[in-house]
Structure formats: structure tokens, C-alpha cells
Design goal:
83 residues, 47% helix, globular, 10% strand, single chain, 2 strands, mainly alpha, two-stranded parallel sheet
Length: 83
């Protein structure tokens, strides 16, 4: 799954769709701060993460909730089809 996520991020970026991933034991502190910074012009259009990452990272979960309240997220999808 993680390999697939990394491949999808790479392909999106090749097509000029700014994408990032958060999965496994990896935690991208830069992405966390980037999502909070309202002054940045380019924000990720897609963020790939595993359901486990969402559940285990309280800080990221709270950030997504805040971004949703502020109207800064249009959609949020969890792909669990591999199960």
C-alpha cells in the first residue's frame, strides 16, 4: 500500500498536481506546518495517507478538523479497498 501511495504521489506531481503523502512511520513535519500556513500560495491538492495514520496521529486529525471548519478542505477520502 505504501509503495502504491508513493507511486501515486510521484505521478500526480509529474502531471503538475501537487500531492504529498503521509504513511507508515513517516511523518512529514514540513507538510503539517505547510497545511497550517495560510500565506503559502501552493497547497497540496491531494494528500495520500493510510487510515492507520489518520487514527494514530491526533495532531493531524485535529488539523484536518480545523481545516474543514475553516472551509479549506473540499473533500476527504479514505481508500480502504485493499481490505
Amino acid at each position: 500500500l505504501i509503495s502504491l501511495i508513493k507511486d501515486q504521489e510521484k505521478e500526480c506531481n509529474a502531471f503538475k498536481i501537487y500531492a504529498k503523502y503521509l504513511c507508515g512511520k513517516e511523518w512529514h513535519e514540513g507538510l503539517f506546518w505547510e497545511l497550517q500556513d495560510r500565506s503559502l500560495l501552493q497547497k497540496p491538492k491531494l494528500i495520500y495517507l493510510t487510515p492507520e495514520k489518520l487514527i494514530k496521529s491526533t495532531a493531524f486529525y485535529e488539523l484536518l478538523q480545523r481545516l474543514n471548519r475553516e472551509g479549506r478542505i473540499e473533500r476527504f477520502v479514505i481508500d480502504e479497498a485493499h481490505c
